[in-house]
């Protein structure tokens, strides 16, 4: 087994100081090599977060497109199958498929040119199946790449 710490990419949708949603490509880098439960051999484990969480799976039908909106709570979104996109207020559009990760934290945006939060929708000819892990607590301020 390699002792090289892994890096795991994710997209962070956040609100800047001017109230505009933006997206930034980030890397999780804080991993520790340890057993999840002995006698299982060690594996690389990332930081644990102890906020209360709600976990759900959602299915966006083919052709689904949401209106401009904010994420209801800070949340991890992991596509399980199909493809989807997220467009932030600054015009950045990120398309993701299975195994790619996004952290949606665009609460507190200010409407600009009819946009508030983000727009998202499915891509292609199959539904987008997404696992969503919502934090029960909200933050007053967001820092891009806070899970790096």
Automatic annotation (TrEMBL):
It comes from the Bacteria. Transmembrane segments: none annotated. Residues 96-118 are annotated as: Disordered. This is Cupin domain-containing protein.
